[in-house]
Amino acid sequence: MLSRKLILTAAAAIAATGMAVSAAWAEPVDEDLVIDGEKKMVTRTKAPEGHPFDEVMSGWLFRTPETRQLEEDSFSNPGMLYVERGEEIWNTVEGEAGKSCASCHGDASKTMAGVGASYPKWDAQAKRPINIELQIDKCRTGAMKAEPYKFDAADQKALTTFIKYQSLGQPMHVDLSQGDLQSWWEKGKDLYYTRTGQLNLSCASCHEENNGQYIRADHLSQGNVNGFPTYRLKQANMVSLHNRFRGCIRDTRASFPAAFSDDLMALEVYVTWRGTGLSIETPAVRQ
Amino acid sequence: MAAPKPRVKVPKSASAGEVITIKTLISHKMESGQRKDKDGKVIPREIINKFTCEFNGKPVFSCDVEPAISANPYFEFSAKVMESGTFKFAWVDDNGETYTHEQAIEVK
Questions:
Q1: Among all residues of chain A, which has the CA nearest to that of B30?
Q2: pLDDT at A20 over 90
Q3: CA B42 to chain centre
Q4: Nearest to B10 by CA among B62, B71, B72, B55
Q5: Is any Cβ of chain B less than 8 angstroms from the Cβ of A233?
Q6: A164 touches chain B (CB under 8 A)
Q7: Residue B63 in contact with residue B49, Cβ under 8 Å?
Q8: Active-site residue, A101 included
Q9: A146 close to A138: Cβ distance less than 8 angstroms
Q10: What is the per-residue pLDDT across A25-77, written as a single tens digit (0 to 9) for each?
Q11: Which residue of B lies nearest to A237 if distances are taken between CA atoms?
Q12: ipTM of the prediction
């Protein structure tokens, strides 16, 4: 907060000298996200106990009007193309067992409703947290007798997007009482506040201390994960959560952990908790 | 991404003389021809190079599409409808294929 005040003072000084400072801020907007004019999303909510903020906010509030608009209309949202592709995969038989997702789980709009909002969960067998991507692989190698997906394979992203989309509008909630999840939360919290790389930045340096401001040309949000997998205009493609984790860590000029590694799973547990109560927005549209 | 798939949004019905909004989107990689692969070879251009829309055989909207258009091109435009009929949409791909879609509208 102190650094923020200093910056504000500096900005006031610049304003007083007549220089334009209007572009220096990327404050969240005070608007509602309503998809297709009917589905109202929770983009602001009271933070869970022990959270550094009073209010958690969706990244949608930090984006430009054009980007926000894309998400408001499920037709113009390019992420919906991947939802449709995911539905095809859901119904496609793969593997030696001759099964598709639908063979066991039936109609995803019923069986998967709300499921995506409660991950990561505790995997008692593997004794570590499990997310949607890993759960899909567990089904593929187990019941379907198919090959697991390679990280960020186009089909992995589309199917994950489709499954999470079934929870659109539902509040994100991770149940930390499962198994050992609490200790993974602690580990994730440590990682969140650990500075890494040549630039010596932690997650908190940007998303806790400087959200609402620009980092070069980009707006910093609170870094909530309720929209993942997210359609990023920069990549013109779906971007998975672990891809984004790795991208952020890479940008601090550090070597970055493998997708679904212990470090990133712990971070996923912790960061998901930080956004408790926000609506699942998959497929969200971001910069 | 799988084969390009068009999506179109046209109101099912309208009153005569009404100006309606038409939205179209097609999944396409829009490879610009400017990028190189890992071996330094240019990745050949493959984009949607033309988009057209006609109503009962008469042109409503058409445009050339250039390499700088991003993946999954989206077009939104307006049309005035006087009679019932069918909108025909076509996207022309560099690879010689044309993807088409039709949607009928009823004018009351």
A1: A236
A2: no
A3: 27
A4: B55
A5: yes
A6: no
A7: no
A8: no
A9: no
A10: 668 888 899 988 899 999 999 999 999 999 999 999 999 999 999 999 998 89
A11: B71
A12: 0.73
